[in-house]
Write a structure and sequence with these properties.
about 30% helix; globular
Length: about 180
Amino acid sequence: MTDLDLLASLPYTGDNEPVLNDWARAEKSLHTTFPPPFKKFLNTFGGAKFDDFLRVYRAGADNENADLIARTLAARHTLTETRPHLHRLLEDRGTSTAEVIRWGGTDNADMLLLIPHPHPDRWAVLTVIGRGPEYDLYEGPPESYLLGVLRGRLMSQVFPDDFPDEEPTVQYSPWI
């Protein structure tokens, strides 16, 4: 089973239906081409919330607080203005704050970001605390990162000690 399959096998509530993402608008607005595995991840979990704490955004959501495009544009500005310690990290990876993609967030205002790379299989996950300098860098796709965190294999400096629950759950909201 893939990590995406394992995530999809978690206990859930809500409508586990295909998620509609506006990929053409997202790619045009954010000046990027998303790798097919990321599209598959968001087509499965866009709008979902893990353990009533961590939300995965959807490209083109009506609710701007759950919209990948709106959240990404806001995050790029925030990172540029308030997180200078991350600029060097991004520069060392051949990118900048103007290219990151915010694919999720938490109730504590933590940001889950993708760091693009010319090779789609080398995109990485950067998780940035809502307030403060802490961050996590994970070399791999969001579904592997999320599964690692939920299963306790990856420890985060960003997330609170009570996340995740012992038995993580997913609340699907594909129309959010």
